[in-house]
Amino acid sequence: TRYLKILDWYIIRKFIGTYVFSILLIISIAIVFDVNENLAKFTQFHAPLKAIVFDYYANFVPYFANLFSPLFVFIAVIFFTSKLAGTSEIISMLAAGVSFNRLMRPYMVSCLLISCLSFYLSGYVIPHGTVIRQNFESMYKNSKKNTSAQNVQLQVDRGVIAYIQHYDDKTKRGYGFSLDKFENKKLVSHMTASEIQYDTISDSKYHWQVSNWRIREMKALREKITYGDKRDTLIMMEPADLVFSKGQQETFTNPELSSYISKQIGRGSSNVVQYEVEYHKRIAASFASFILTTIGLSLSSRKRKGGMGLYLGIGLALSFGYILLQTVSATFAVNANTPPMLAAWIPNLLFAVVAYFCYRSAPN
Fold first, then answer.
1. Structure pTM?
2. pLDDT by residue (tens digit) across 50-65?
3. Are 189 and 218 in contact, with CB atoms under 8 Å apart?
4. Among 226, 216, 278, 215, which residue's Cα sits nearest to residue 248?
5. Beta bridge partners of 227
6. Side by side, which strands form the sheet with 222-234?
7. Whether the predicted pLDDT of 31 surpasses 70
8. What is the C-alpha separation between 53 and 48, in angstroms, rounded?
9. Burial class of residue 357 (count of CB atoms within 10 Å of its CB; 0-12, 13-18, 19+)
10. Among residues 117, 33, 114, which one has the least CA distance to residue 74?
């Protein structure tokens, strides 16, 4: 083609091929260990083979492959570039007048393909699979999932505060409900109900039915009281707003995550940091391939005695360091009030500095 020459396609095939091979190899090993660990639970809870294969492992593989994608990229670059350097192919390229910057072009093209695929999977495909996998774990691995909430209070609209004493997500039913409406910081309406039930078959959202309801409306010095047995009403909240389970942010696609964050911030909710971190982390992780590839190429492109062992070890250490730093920075964002965007980008910023110094010391 016009922009990609024979050399570029040669390196791209090597890169993508080694990347896919490393994923298949490591994930296969992970599956073997996971089967060995969970086989007793699968047997104990009578998990059907079809569910194990298609509900659990079919969603287990893309989740962990994408999670450790930076590790696989680094391993692939170190592995095949060291082999090229060991057979003097890198030296031949540089001696033929190919600059190091020109040599980086096919690596960056490969990274672009991997990054786009990783971003699409993490933002639009894997969240749906995560829901299926978590439901399987809840049913067949006895992984306790939070299905109820106590004393939930949230702002459902401007000046409208809802309170539920107890909510059960399995039945979508709440008990001890109240809804207060304020205007200019004055209470103008107070609604109470013994039970509130979410309408799961409605074509639109926010449909609830209240039982044994009572409404007090205050206008100046007058007060109006109405009550009844059952009443359908629109309340700007959903079951997902009431029950928070571990890893819930991983079940939202990017548009759902963005919408949820905006809605919760508008309500003044404080339980939104981990969702913001997840959103920014998906974007930041897509750029990790470029940074780690630059480091890997710079380290392994020089021919040295002893083969690739040393650089493969350095590559693994740096990859695990990146993944560890991701986890630590996310924890700091949740527990130490670090801005979510900064927490998500800290690993990239620090490793970009490492990549720059590695690039400066690369052969030319």
1. 0.80
2. 999 999 999 999 998 9
3. yes
4. 278
5. 214
6. 148-157, 160-168, 173-183, 186-198, 207-219, 222-234
7. yes
8. 9
9. exposed
10. 114
Q: How many CB atoms lie within 10 A of CB 361?
A: 10
**With 90 as the cut, is the pLDDT of residue 195 above it?**
yes
How many CB atoms are closer than 10 A to CB 108?
Answer: 15
Q: Please, where are the H alpha helices in the chain?
A: 6-44, 49-50, 58-67, 69-86, 89-95, 100-120, 126-140, 254-266, 273-300, 309-335, 340-360
Cα gap 238→105, rounded to integer Å: 48
Picking from 205, 343, 324, the residue whose alpha carbon sits closest to that of residue 274 is: 343
Taking residues 14-32, what's their average pLDDT?
92
Residue found by looking up tokens 């490492």 in the block: 354
Rounded distance between C-alpha atoms, residue 272 and residue 291, angstroms? 29
Can you tell me the distance from the alpha carbon of 252 to that of 258, in angstroms, rounded to the nearest whole number?
9
DSSP code for 336: S
